[in-house]
Write a structure and sequence with these properties.
It is a single chain. The chain is α/β, with parallel strands linked by helices and 315 residues long. 46% of the residues lie in helices and 17% in strands. It has helices at residues 2-25, 28-39, 51-65, 75-78, 105-113, 128-132, 154-173, 178-184, 188-193, 197-200, 214-224, 244-250, 260-263, 277-287, 306-311, and strands at residues 44-48, 70-72, 91-95, 118-122, 135-138, 207-209, 228-232, 238-243, 265-266, 270-271, 291-296, 299-305. The strands form three sheets. The protein has a five-stranded parallel sheet, sandwiched between helices. Strands 6-7-8-9 form a four-stranded mixed sheet. A three-stranded mixed sheet has the order 10-11-12. The radius of gyration is 30 Å and the shape is elongated.
Amino acid sequence: MNNELEYAKSVFIEEEAGLAAFRETLDENFTRALDLLCRKNGHVIVSGMGKPGHIGRKISATMASTGTPSFFLHPAEASHGDMGEISKEDVLLVLSLSGNTQELIPMLSYANRFGIDIVAITANPDSVLAKSAKCVILMPKIKEACPYNLAPTTTTTMMIAVGDALALCLLKRKEFNREDFKQLHPGGALGKRLLMVKDLMHTDVPVVSENDLMKSVLVEMTQKAFGCACVVNRGGVVVGIITDGDLRRGISENFLNMKASEIMSRNPKTIPENMFAQEATKLMNDYKITSLFITDNGIPKGIIHIHDCLRAGLV
């Protein structure tokens, strides 16, 4: 068991060495590749055969989810009619360690014939792929982590790393932001993390003036049913909050004729609408409160309740 654990660690070491070597040899061709991938208005069509093809699918998916339209094209399928998916506005990103994979050659010939730019990721500068490409990201020749130096392991790790680097550099060039991310990732755990307060907040805020009598405050709190009321001054700026707890603490013989300012808790926590809902949930949990007012320059704009966050799957 210990021998297997040590061997597993050695695989990590081999692959880390490959990444370190690739990092040192990465040159201006990487930037040229970015220029080509940004220049056209079409898709980045990623292709590769075997293990590089599997890596290519992941690279394409990462690009598509970070603002660069992309899809994967299987080279064998391309030779049987799918070449029609490639337009002159597209750029081909082709992965092949040897660069001489036979299934790639018809697609490379087609691209060259119709002036479609090719970016190559390969370890062979003298290959058909490298000679067909307008730009070559050359991988260093590194031994695979496989004990027989056969199964693609270190090289596929290098390919996925440079693919991620391309996708994220394109993200930065295109100024793809969190809001853009949210549009492309509405579902799953990532979608929940990208929910904004404005996506969950209620705009029918229970608002009372600091000079309102508590009998009016109770009516407002009952009608809006959030278990609290936002207290504002003459300028409409939030100055306090009245919660169910404040009602119990402040109740007295003359309670209904007291002013809101006499019962309220001052300086309540407020947040902006562009805060992530997950952060708002954490804030409510940290301060053991159930509601937060959303304000714009101190003016109440909305309210979010802990139950809204729980319904959205935030904890």
